[in-house]
Amino acid sequence: MSVRVLMYSTGVCPYCVMAERLLKAKGVEVIEKIRIDLDPDQRTEMMQKTGRRTVPQIYIGDTHVGGFDDLSALDRGGKLDPLLQGA
Prior knowledge:
There is one protein chain. By secondary structure, this protein is an alpha+beta fold. It has one domain (5-84): Glutaredoxin (3-Layer(aba) Sandwich). 43% of the residues lie in helices and 20% in strands. The chain contains four helices and four strands. It has a four-stranded mixed beta sheet, with helices on both faces. Strand 3 and strand 4 (63-66) form a beta hairpin. Helix 1 runs parallel beside helix 3 (68-76). The chain is globular and about 35 Å long. The termini are close together.
């Protein structure tokens, strides 16, 4: 899998851990993480890009997936695998 996965996260975020676990179970080897708790400018950027304040905020390629609930719903709907394969 070569599609880029980007996740805005914090150090203490159970949903970030669950999202990472799900992505790794799907074969994602590299998750590019941006820690918004360590860099307030990144939090501002995340909120401008996504319109959301909560983490995780996940991008697969150029697609903003949303948070863990959104990621999980995509998986249940059978739409996560094609997204991860760059379809």
